[in-house]
Amino acid sequence: MTFAGPNYLAIVVAAVAAFFFGGIYYQLLAAHWMKAAGLSKKNIQNASHAPLLVAFVAELIMAWMLAGVLGHLGPGQVTVKNGAVSGAFVWLGFVATTLVVNNAFGQRKLALSAIDAVHWLAVLLIMGAIIGAFGV
After folding, report:
1. What is the mean pLDDT of the chain?
2. Could you tell me the pTM of the whole model?
3. Does 49 reside within a domain?
4. Is 3 within the bounds of a domain?
């Protein structure tokens, strides 16, 4: 099996697409998310923009790591379908489980876990499909 390295354009496009999806997703679910997180509009309005930068950097790293996982599928196996399937497996095995455990110990509402888990599933499906389409 050979893996020449990641396609950096695919990584950037995947991260940007995921970031914009997150913006739309959380805009649509803002009231539900704030209630589940125990926050108010005032809390959100007074917050800095630093979490957005952190989120984008994290999504770049996530896309880079997912590209690495996909690269190990082997020649001819990096497809949109395999990218999405790999994203779903990574989500179920690492993201959803970590999120649920952290929220359980933080005594946060199940609704918060559900809203955030669906977001990260969609993010990894988007990233996987984009990286699969571009190839690694």
Report:
1. 94
2. 0.93
3. yes
4. no
